[in-house]
Design brief:
Blueprint (H helix, E strand, L loop, with lengths): L5 H12 L4 E5 L10 E4 L1 H9 L3 H7 L1 E10 L4 E6 L9 E5 H14 L3 E5 L3 E7 L2 E6 L4 E5 L2 E3 L14 E17 L7 E8 L3 E7 L10 E9 L3 H7 L1 H11 L4 H4 L9 E10 L3 E2 L2 E3 L2 H4 L8 H17 L4 H30 L4 H15 L2 H12 L22
Amino acid sequence: MVGAGTAGTAAALFLARAGHEVTLFEAVPAPAAIGAGILLQPTGLSVLARLGLANAILARGARVDRLHAVTHSRRTVLDLSYGRAGADRFGLGLHRGVLFTELLAAARTEPRISVRCGVTIEAQRRDGDGCTLTDGEGGTHGPFDLVVVADGARSRLRSGHVGLRHAKEYPWGALWFIAEDPDESFRGVLFQVVERATTMLGFLPSGFGPEGRVPRVSLFWSVRAQEVETLRAAGLGAWKTRVAELEPRAEPVLAQIEHIEQLLYARYHDIAMRPWHDRGVVFLGDAAHATSPQLGQGANLALVDALVLSECVASHDTLDEGLAAYSRERRTHLAYYQWATRFLTPFFQSGSRTLAVLRDVFMGPLCRMPVLRGLMLRTLIGVERGPFRAALPLPPNALPPPV
């Protein structure tokens, strides 16, 4: 396994528990619980339940029952409630570090997994029936029967893969900050304010984080990559004023941001690849299909990748057959979410006045139309595969509510 993120570590756990010996390589010498807030969907939570980690994750997360986006004039753009998809369905706002910590801790205690931190894998080559990896110091590792590449959107091993179609950066990204929210001003709702297709402010309840018992909220501010330094050079004053104008409840959050460097920047990527396997190698998570986070599905798709890979390997006589089955199984699901993300993102991040007007006029009413609302909810939950294909089965609703 190359990369101890969500996809790599979850896949390591599934495969190790199926009886395989696994080596998990991570480039960071001392991995820490860092990152912004993420939204786990019922699909992702069901995979974590299969790993026995759902209760620990739920205890540190914040239940999200609704997505609500409005314009700066408070016209509704998007309003979706999980409850319409089934009794007690919900999303879970979570500090990414919580998911990372729980997965890695489970991997460290799994006897069939050897965790190797501080090893940057730079290349891989086929040697007969196995694959040998080369690290940044020139050392070699292997050969291995299977290499799972899960080293993120900036994967070092993706170049030259037979299935790679393109790997590029979006012109947009987001500045983010995780703040304490003791009054839970944003409880239960992923809330966004948009203005034209150039401004998007978001607030995601994010649970307690890796430590402590104070509720937190993640603030996101959409920005073009080329404008990040200009914004930082202008200082906090003007930006804070703008955020407070768009959402007055943000004042306590803004009071915790004292230096512009506290606003961290995340760049979006668009990775298109198919198939996701070659002989003895398979790509998972953002290394295989990174997108704009407009639909908030990154961690959920990565978890489903890990589960499906383990099932395909287990249910076929040879590894090559299992990997081919994996690419077939993931094709329609991943294709739909990549298409939907590419379609929707310009309505929120593009600078297009026309698309912004169409969004503001039509998207709110569309949310109230039963057929389209059902499609939107299935997309949100993570089970949609396209309007002319059957959705994935809804995951079992056996999860307790978060504490």
